[in-house]
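Hi everyone, sorry if this is the wrong subforum. Our group has a chain we'd like a structural model of before ordering constructs, and none of us has done structure prediction before. Sequence below.
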Amino acid sequence: MARPARSRWAAHTGEAARRALNVTVAALSLTLAFPLLLLIAAAVKLSSPGPVFYTQERVGLDKRRRTRDRRVRRRGDPDRRGPDAGGRLFRIYKFRTMYVNHGHEEQVWAKKGDPRITPVGRVLRAFRLDEVPQLWNVLLGQMNIVGPRPEQPEIFRHLRSEIVDYHRRQHVLPGITGWAQINNGYDQTFRDVERKLGYDLEYLEKRSPAEDLKIMVKTVPVVLGRKGYH
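Answer:
Right subforum, don't worry. Here is the predicted structure as tokens:
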């Protein structure tokens, strides 16, 4: 059953207000943090060989539930949309926290005591400062400040095949922080992913500008307390 026009309008207005809040906070944060960003960039560059920034492909928003292809495709016809990545792929920006690997880099989670992490990188990760460049992803329209964390494509495909409803996380823009992040630390086990998915789906149901603002505020003590750091 189609949603009433008023319900669709209210949902659209709410999403527009959320987006406006996220963009405003991102722009102000980048402006105020600019001197700190310069210091971090210098520390990363001087502490180990390699670039200041690290980019990596991530899975973003999946718009297909709202804008499906109306053309009826016969069985056996090729899908012109290409392989199903689960959402629009984009490149996420971070301050580099690991030593440069010139070989093939397998898509795996960082773990506690990971030898790939540089000394400066450990400090940045402890206070989530490596994530600050993602404010640029917010301004580009690829992320919000608040939303489910975007996953690497190979890991996403595996988790989607193993966990029911995992794909639903992609129904909103991914975020730098979120309801799952302030209730749990970094993913280290399959059980962690399942637990955080529950928080992500809970957020999808009650998301609003007020909810996003509340999560932003609650992120501050999580960062200062280094909750979930490794």
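For your construct planning: Residues 30-65+83-224 form one domain. Helices lie at 5-32, 34-47, 119-126, 134-139, 153-162, 179-183, 190-206, 209-224.
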